[in-house]
């Protein structure tokens, strides 16, 4: 019996059926659409048995599977090595076209290149679309055609180019165009080596009042002054177009934060070396310390600096850290402790629910002074002054550092004044030698 001809929509960091660009285009095509998700062993095998992000993805996929089943279709979920999974799928189905939304991280681009070649060998088109950002690649450039490496002029050009059409949703075609398949694979967490556990994920609904007041509340870590939508933007469980359309009307400061996401994505696209190395290559000449005890104290939130410790303990317990505190924590590691920013970036990659390589690398390099539009190397956050300014009543600190104020709380592992002078000397020496 001849196989039914199908198109595949390959779902990756766009876990939703509504307002999904690539899916909408697939549904407009000539063939019934089979929706696919692949749990990539190359990524999952590096994670601990209890990983809140894997569980989040699995739970979201379960809901999508139910939505598709209500349409008479189903979701195909696979676990394994991506190239091998695709070879298996091509043997099992008569695939006429593959659709996906683009991912701009270097490993994802390399993965997609391999799949493109695999599909091309069988004369199957692989069509990519823009979905997780409003502008991509070379859509926002300087007048001379070069990419921006400073945020403010990028933001101005971005707003100048932005049209209402960029914020309009992509309508799904008739649900009858989903492939009418049933009983498709959906591995449970245990079969992939993970444990299910209770975890409270941030709500995906945004409140107008919170976004309207964002500019007044965003820097206070002790209150719910930010939207906590970053995990949903990261995995695409909400549409950036839908959020940006309302943010643009409600609060320009919040809208500017969404533009930062696009900015860091285009930086990583144009300068892929910054994925692992300093954007400003001269900063890779810095002689970093190799103090395992200091790094361990930083990871565990036992540095003797209350705001740093509260942030790290919040991260370890919840997978979230307030953005103001992220800046202080990152500056402390790279300048007070003079530890390589990549150590911190890697630790955040392991812990953050909303981990996004472009934003995380961009933020860490900003704090270390070695990235695009970076804070000058001679600016060193004073954790004590930051605490006094943003948590004066110690509400945030006391929530996360229960022993604060007792003999059980550690003394500072470095002296601020001495650490600052050491950092300035070390940075100056590296830049001078370069």
TrEMBL record:
Keywords: Chromophore, FAD, Flavoprotein, Lyase. Binds 1 FAD per subunit. GO terms for biological process: nucleobase-containing compound metabolic process; response to light stimulus; response to stress. Residues 5-134 form the Photolyase/cryptochrome alpha/beta domain. The record marks 288, 341, 364 as: Electron transfer via tryptophanyl radical. The keyword Lyase applies. Transmembrane segments: none annotated. Pfam families: DNA_photolyase, FAD_binding_7. Its cofactor is FAD; (6R)-5,10-methylene-5,6,7,8-tetrahydrofolate. FAD binds at residues 214, 226-230, 254, 257-264, 354-356. It comes from the Bacteria. GO terms for molecular function: deoxyribodipyrimidine photo-lyase activity; DNA binding; FAD binding. PANTHER family: CRYPTOCHROME (PTHR11455), CRYPTOCHROME CIRCADIAN CLOCK 5 ISOFORM X1 (PTHR11455:SF9). Belongs to the DNA photolyase family. This is Deoxyribodipyrimidine photo-lyase. It comes from Croceimicrobium hydrocarbonivorans.
């Amino acid at each position: 019996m001849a196989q039914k001809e199908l198109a595949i929509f390959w779902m990756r960091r766009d876990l939703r059926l509504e307002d999904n660009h690539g899916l909408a285009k697939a549904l407009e095509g000539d063939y019934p659409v089979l929706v696919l998700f692949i749990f990539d062993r190359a990524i999952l095998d590096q994670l601990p048995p209890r990983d809140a992000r894997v569980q989040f993805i699995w739970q979201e996929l379960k809901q999508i599977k139910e939505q598709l089943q209500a349409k008479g279709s189903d979701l195909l979920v696979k676990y394994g090595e991506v190239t091998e999974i695709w070879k298996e799928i091509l043997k099992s189905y008569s695939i006429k076209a593959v659709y996906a939304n683009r991912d701009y991280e270097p490993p994802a681009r390399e993965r997609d290149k391999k799949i493109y070649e695999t599909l091309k060998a069988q004369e199957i088109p692989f069509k990519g679309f823009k979905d997780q950002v409003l502008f991509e690649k070379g859509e926002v450039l300087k007048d001379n055609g070069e990419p921006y490496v400073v945020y403010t002029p990028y933001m101005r050009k971005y707003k100048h180019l932005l049209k209402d059409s960029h914020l309009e949703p992509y309508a799904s075609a008739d649900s009858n165009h989903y492939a009418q398949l049933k009983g498709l694979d959906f591995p449970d967490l245990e079969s992939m080596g993970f444990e299910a556990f209770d975890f409270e994920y941030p709500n995906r609904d945004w409140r107008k009042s919170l976004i309207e007041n964002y500019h007044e509340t965003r820097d206070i870590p002790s209150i719910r002054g930010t939207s906590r939508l970053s995990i949903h933007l990261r995995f695409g469980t909400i549409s950036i177009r839908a959020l940006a359309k309302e943010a643009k009307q409600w609060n320009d400061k919040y809208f500017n934060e969404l533009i930062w996401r696009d900015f860091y994505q285009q930086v990583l696209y144009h300068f892929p070396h910054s994925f692992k190395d300093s954007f400003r290559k001269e900063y890779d000449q810095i002689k970093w310390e190799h103090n395992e005890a200091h790094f361990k104290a930083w990871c565990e939130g036992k540095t003797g600096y209350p705001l740093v410790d509260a942030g790290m303990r919040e991260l370890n317990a919840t997978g979230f850290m307030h953005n103001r505190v992220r800046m202080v924590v990152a500056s402390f590691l790279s300048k007070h402790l003079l530890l390589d920013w990549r150590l911190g970036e890697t630790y955040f990659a392991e812990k953050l629910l909303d981990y996004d390589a472009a934003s995380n690398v961009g933020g860490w390099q900003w704090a270390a002074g070695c990235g695009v539009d970076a804070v000058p190397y001679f600016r060193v956050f004073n954790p004590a002054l930051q605490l006094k300014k943003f948590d004066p009543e110690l509400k945030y600190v006391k929530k996360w550092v229960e022993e604060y104020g007792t003999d059980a709380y550690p003394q500072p592992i470095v002296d601020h004044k001495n650490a600052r002078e050491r950092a300035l000397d070390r940075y100056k020496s590296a830049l001078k030698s370069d």
